[in-house]
Amino acid sequence: MQGMNGKKFWRLIWGNHTKLHVWEKCLVFDLFCVCLVSGAVMSGIGNMGGENEGILATAQIHEDTQEETKKVALTFDDGPHPQYTPEMLAALKERDVKATFFLLGEEVEKHPEIVKQIHEQGHLIGNHSYKHEQLSKLTMEQACAQVSRTNELVYEITGTYPSYIRPPFGDWQDKLDCEVNMVEVLWDVDTLDWSSQNHAQIVNKVLKNVQENDIILMHDGYETSVTAAGEIIDTLKKQGYEFVTVDEILFD
To answer: Comparing 187 with 13, which gets the higher pLDDT?
Structure first.
């Protein structure tokens, strides 16, 4: 049957079918059925193999993506600042990065339009007390007033109460029971940007110490913090980091 295609082969078989005895016809018919079933099975296995390969390839890609993506959160304290917070927002928007801003109530009162801008650009707003006082050294009533007043100011501008608080100096009263329950947020990497105000030192501090799921502490009231934040974002993105707000670090 060299050079004979499948169509010609079956045409030859059935062309001589009338010349065959009954038992020969049955044998041919059985052979035909077996070939059909075998072909269908092999075709199904081939398709299944292709589908499995596709599934495995997709799973591998997903796994590789999961391994490469590392979350980190940028946080900014003491704002909003009339000049540098808008500059920081512009730098974040340019890089498609969301951050967390822990705002002081007295600055919120002075610059409500910037608070609104922070909120509208999709950043998370947290509470940093009203006057940046050490809450553990205040009476319970005074400490609660610092927190509650700031929450109300933010709510009046954004329509949302802050759920997260970073107490000034990281000093929180364990028994502080204000009207609004809040999640305390500290940090893993302190850039000390307020102290050095040195671009290179701020960047190096982060790059030498940052790890996956870290919360980075910065301030949005200095020009060097704005430029350093931009370089930090650009460098860490190349290393596979994804910038998120603190809620994703704490609860995802």
So the answer is: 187
